[in-house]
Specification:
Layout lengths: L12 E4 L20 E4 L5 H17 L1 E3 L2 E3 L3 H15 E8 L2 E3 L3 H10 L1 H11 L10
Helix pairs in contact: 1-2, 3-4
Length: 137
Amino acid sequence: MDLSNLKLSDSSTRMLLRNPDTDEIIYIDDEHEDPMHIDLISSDAKEYRSLVHRQNNARMKEVKVVRNKIKGISSERSEEEALDLLLAATKGMRIKLEGAIVGSTPDERRKVYDEFLWIREQATAFVDDRVAHMGES
């Protein structure tokens, strides 16, 4: 076995969107030929790790010690940074929402992740799933 065969690519992998209740793939069409999907890079990708470092460095600059108490960032800010990471990891999206196909712009992607936390949860788990990004063996 050569470990280079287990090296993850920096390219995106397609995640098929699943119904959070039944775990069935969700389709755009009634014929079940066009699945809703999100193309995501791995948390191991250079681009993703670079953004994590930038966020962490900015956070460290903001953390202050005042009278022996650490003043940090808010929970809301932490959630916003996590969303920014997910948006950076999202390289494509094709979802039907309110009768239209959405996901081609950052604003549409943000709207999907803001309105459907279960989609955000699926995508975040997929980004961190190394096996999903290994490809076919």
